[in-house]
Amino acid sequence: MSLLEVRGLEVAFENEEGEDLVVVDGVDLSLKPGQTLGLVGESGCGKSVSALSLLRLLPQPTGKILNGSILWKGNDLLNMSTDEIRSIRGKEIGMIFQEPMNALNPAHTIGRQVDEVYITHQGLDRGQARVHTLKMLQKVGIPEPSIRANEYPHQLSGGMRQRIVIAIALACEPDLIIADEPTTALDVTIQAQVLQLMSELQEQSGASLLLITHDLGVVAQTCDEVAVMYAGRIVERAPMHRLFEFPQHAYTKGLLASIPSLTGPVQTKLPVIQGMIPALADLNSGCRFASRSPHFHEQEWLEVRAPLVEVEENHWVEDCPACGRLNNQSSI
Amino acid sequence: MEELLKISQLKVHFPVKGGIWMRPVATCKAVDGVSLKVAKGETLGLVGESGCGKSTLARTVVGLNVPTAGEIFLDGQKLGDFGGKLGKENRKRVQMVFQDPAESLNARHNVGQILEEPLVIHQIGDSCQRTARVKELLNLVGLPENAGSRYPFEFSGGQRQRIGIARALALSPEILVLDEPVSALDLSIRSQVLNLLLELKNRLGLTCLFIAHDLSVVRHLSDRIAVMYLGKVIEIASAEELINNPLHAYTRSLIDAIPQPNPQVRGKFSALSGEVPSPINPPPGCAFGYRVGSPSYAKSIGQTLALKEYSPGHFVQECPCCMI
Predict the structure, then answer these.
(1) How many angstroms separate the CA atoms of B267 and B288, rounded?
(2) How would you label B276-314 residue by residue, b for 16+ Cβ within 10 Å and e otherwise?
(3) What is the pLDDT of residue A332?
(4) Which of B156, B187, B256 sits opposite A258 (nearest CB)?
(5) Burial of A212 by CB count in 10 Å (0-12 exposed, 13-18 middle, 19+ buried)?
(6) C-alpha span between B197 and B218 (Å, rounded)
(7) Pairing mode, if any, of strands B307-311 and B224-229?
(8) How far apart, in Å, are the Cα atoms of A131 and each of A110, A111, A147, B74, B111?
(9) Is A280 on the interface with B (CB under 8 A)?
(10) pLDDT recorded at residue A210
(11) Does residue A22 contact residue A66 with C-beta atoms inside 8 Å?
């Protein structure tokens, strides 16, 4: 049974004229216990907004969920009262944000910020909470936790701050961790440390992880399954190995081809994806990548949305004639 | 090999102010004794973690920071002084592309004005010739000619970076300093800009100092790569040699820390423990040995760690604790 099941999620933001701009357009996701799902896409594709919707944390009053359902252990999060969803946030679902400096309160010591989780969700008093906090800080690799707990976020380095955010997210041993670009703000060496820490902690607790990233390298190293998002939609979803070995959608193929590698040829032209990401205000109803695909030649493809089809077990692709599996066969 | 840019024993120190009178209480040694040579037409990549001094070095080369000690030579001529008339001539020869195109372009000027400004400052050509040059520049970086009358906010990130590149090329500089030119760009746009840089470099025979934290990007564009750590260059070699045969433990760990987009090598990436020590209060011995707690760290205290040529063109800082 799925732990989290998102069906037909549609999220919109209201602009100044009062019109709804749809930024997430019919997204389906499902996560099994213990699984790591990577959600990949470029900025503005709706991956962070999807994640925020899962916890009903969309900026108010402009952000709204128009349609769809988010089933958490069988219950729809969208029908829950504010109190009910609060008891899930931080307790059953933990969240790790991109910029640790913005996610932490600069006016409170880090110890107090971790304590808060235990006090709120487990009803412990300050003294008991601090005992748990120190254990947790130790677990995420903070040296001398009892001294560090009394320091403020600005006294720590970026990598240490992200460890604190991880400690807060994992304090109540949640069943699901949502990590939104957890390592993008970090150096490559510190990124490796944080990724290793996350996968160790995940293994110990058996939690599921929804990892949002734009870095396919991070995906290849950490995920079991991958969903590729483009302009508000999931265009391809597959087990991680299959996505890298047998990509179907033209966008996925383009992304994979355009990364300079450590072993490939140097100082030669990289394959590029032509054109650019469409603006939110003028999204078409059909395939949004079609006009950037080399196989595009029917205007109609921009108007009719192609269905997701299963090309092999668990491997789904949006079956647009220009970008989907058909062009795959014709081009080879 | 004709060397165009020579940096010798360059030091850039910043005072750290503190106390109620904001008096200097310490020195931040951002760049601490760097010597580099870049040949004509060559691209030298500079990599390292944030805070290692790579951006300070770049800014010093274009004259945005004043060196505390050491000299920079361009074509055998000293580049140290950027003030006065001579300085203005010097600035023309070295230009820079910045990391974030959204912040480095004047939002109140249209693209034509942005590209024309360097020409106006250096009094090159009349208005007609300058307009023609702007068109030429737009063509060069693959933007439409009518872009000149539009404003930076009307462009996407990748296009804005093209404008930044065009501006840097306006004065036909001999050296182009690129400070993380693609790290603010999206994946599908990044390869477009990398291709543009590669093409320009070949077409115009540019000499580049390419700074980035992403080794795979640096390797793609550079002939040689220098690795910086805490204000010092610890290893220099040709791009291929450095990646395939790193001699310094820090270079090795930088390479190993990159998560490769290839599931076949999953689990092989490894994390380096510890963090970069502060450049304000650096450890007495080898800064890297100190970080990883190397058992032979104590041996490096009090030694002068100098670059040594191990094989032709492959220099590495000789240190008792970090050699592979």
Answers:
(1) 24
(2) bbebeebbebbbbbbbbebeebeebeeeebebeeeeeeb
(3) 36
(4) B187
(5) buried
(6) 12
(7) unpaired
(8) 14, 10, 13, 61, 59
(9) no
(10) 96
(11) yes
For residues B199 and B196, what is the distance between their CA atoms, to the nearest angstrom?
5
User: Is residue B10 within 8 Å of residue B60, measured between CB atoms?
Assistant: yes
Cβ–Cβ gap A260/B216 under 8 Å: yes
Helix (H, G, I), strand (E, B) or coil at B262: coil
**Mind telling me how many Å the CA of A143 is from chain B's nearest CA?**
10
**How far is the C-alpha of A219 from the C-alpha of A224, rounded, in Å?**
9
The pLDDT tens digits for B9-21 are 999 999 988 888 8
Tokens 């942005």 belong to which residue? B114
* Spatial separation of the C-alpha atoms in residues B1 and A325, rounded to whole Å: 51
Q: Are strands A315-318 and A308-312 parallel, antiparallel or unpaired?
A: antiparallel
Helix (H, G, I), strand (E, B) or coil at B183: coil
A268 CB neighbour count, 10 Å cutoff: 10
pLDDT reported for residue B279: 82
The structure's pTM equals 0.88
Which of A42, A240, A264 minimises the CB distance to B186?
A42
* CA–CA distance, B50 with A186 (Å, rounded to integer): 9
Give A152's pLDDT tier (boundaries 50, 70, 90): very high
Nearest to A221 among B188, B266, B275 (CB): B266
Closest approach of B95 to chain A, Cα-based (Å): 22
| Domains, chain B | 3-317 (3.40.50.300)
pLDDT digits (tens, 9 = 90+) for B188-214: 888 999 999 999 999 999 999 999 888
* DSSP type of residue B5: E
Per-residue pLDDT, A188: 87
For B36, other C-beta atoms within 10 Å of its C-beta total 21
Q: Return the structure tokens found at B147.
A: 């872009």
> Do residue B188 and residue A190 have CB atoms under 8 angstroms apart?
no
What DSSP string runs through A247-301?
Answer: --SHHHHHHHHTS--SSS-SSSPPP---S-PPPGGG--SS-SSGGGSTT---GGG
Task: Judge contact between B94 and B173, C-beta under 8 A.
Answer: yes
